[in-house]
Amino acid sequence: MSLSNEQVYGLVRRIPEGRVATYGQIAGLTGFPRHARQVGYALAALREQDNPDVPWHRVINARGEISSRFDAGSEDYQRILLEDEGVVFDEGGRVSLKRFQWRP
DNA sequence: CTTATGACTTTCA
DNA sequence: CTGAAAGCCATAA
User: Fold this and answer.
1) Bases of chain B within 7 A of a CB of the protein
2) Burial of A8 (0-12, 13-18, 19+ CB in 10 A)
3) What percent of chain A has pLDDT over 90?
4) Which chain C nucleotides are covered by protein, judged by CB under 7 A?
5) Helix, strand, coil percentages, rounded to 5, for chain A
6) Contact criterion met (CB below 8 Å) for A102 and A18
7) Nearest nucleic acid nucleotide to A70, CA to C1' distance
8) Ranges A52-56, A60-64, A72-76, A86-90: which has the least confidence
9) What sign for the dihedral angle of Cα A42, A30, A84, A95?
10) Could you tell me the sign of the dihedral formed by the alpha carbons of A38, A41, A43, A45, in that order?
């Protein structure tokens, strides 16, 4: 048994608008607390496919920052999507998890 | 079978 | 606050 992409997508779909979740949090909710990287891996795979229902932009790292990938530019895109939903970024380009982290 | 890699996290200095 | 190091684990070669 392992963490399937569909499990990740299902969880990410549950994140309400204007809220964010961390990779580790998603992993924990699926029942695999140590699979934070696999969550990111699943989302990376999602990028290549077309799953419009999955709000991947609401998933950030434990520091409240947007995790960079080798494709610069989409980090800005992710930030814009979040700001559009009401998520506020501070001067360092980080989100206050205290206020915006999703609590099921 | 072994290595390398990566949208991560936590701890320690 | 920053940065390095170790831990973790699915995937690909």
Assistant:
1) 6-10
2) buried
3) 77
4) 2, 7-11
5) 50, 10, 45
6) no
7) B7
8) A72-76
9) negative
10) negative
Q: What is the pLDDT of residues A27-70, one digit of tens each?
A: 999 999 999 999 999 999 888 777 778 999 999 999 999 997 76
Instruction: Report the distance from CA of residue A50 to the C1' of nucleotide C8 in Å, as an integer.
Output: 29
Footprint of strand C on the protein (CB under 7 A): A 2-5, 34-38, 41, 92
Q: Round to a whole number and report the distance in Å from the CA of A14 to the C1' of B3.
A: 37
Residue with structure tokens 């229902």?
A53
Please tell me the pTM assigned to this model: 0.92
